[in-house]
UniProtKB/TrEMBL annotation:
InterPro entries: RNaseH_sf (IPR036397). GO terms for molecular function: nucleic acid binding. It comes from the Eukaryota. It comes from Cylindrotheca closterium. This is Uncharacterized protein.
Amino acid sequence: MAIIPTQTQTTITRAQTTITLAEEEREVKKQAQAKAGRAKRQTRDEAHHVLVRAANIQMIRNMPETDATLTKRPERKGGIVVEDDMRAPFTLQDYVKVGADFRPGMNRHGNCCDCLYLVDCNVTGSSEGTPDDPKFVLKKLFEHHIFQKLDGLVATGGQYEVYIPVIQGDNAGPHAEKEYFNWCKAQCEQRGWHWEPQVPQMPHMNNLDLSVFPCMSRRHCAAARERGGLHVLKQDGIWDAAEDVWRTLPCIGRGERFCWKQDREWHSL
């Protein structure tokens, strides 16, 4: 004997079908959100070593290393100094673009989950640090940016095809790290280039030599505290403090003038 469903039974069946479809939609949406979250976390893990505060990014933009491509020693009136932009490929504009998509829900530091944000970090030779303690790795900067750009400059048909790069660091702590140093030296040897860490007094390549740079750094820290206490200064405040220090170290001014004269002499040859 067949049972004819009543109106009440039909309504319940339709309601159950609606609930089932809603659950499926929620599950699909949940999986899509999880996939997007994994993609964001992967992007964050790849980029967090390069995301530093504005002052550090400005410093990285003006890194003096590999700014010289020489055929001979400049003190012997040979070669040419190449002033080229060797900045890190990830800039503040990229950060603003990547970090524009914020999600609700902030942690106790005011940062959104799975979103990129600026952090303070130390410069290291090869140590990548951790997500909780990120580092700016010089090895990755050279591997993925500087060496590639130099390869293009001296390649066949490049702007400096006949030149041999001579890369001279200033023997600061991260530059002297064994793994980073050996890797950079091996990369240069493979290309027929020269990796020559400079001596403390080498004004034709690094005006802020090892005797001036630590002094300037310490005085800048003191000047910054006079202006902003223990708070992090904005970019203008950082540069104002640097200008104050520059004016109190006359040897820097003399060195800059010497570098300018040397540059004029080399370009007049």
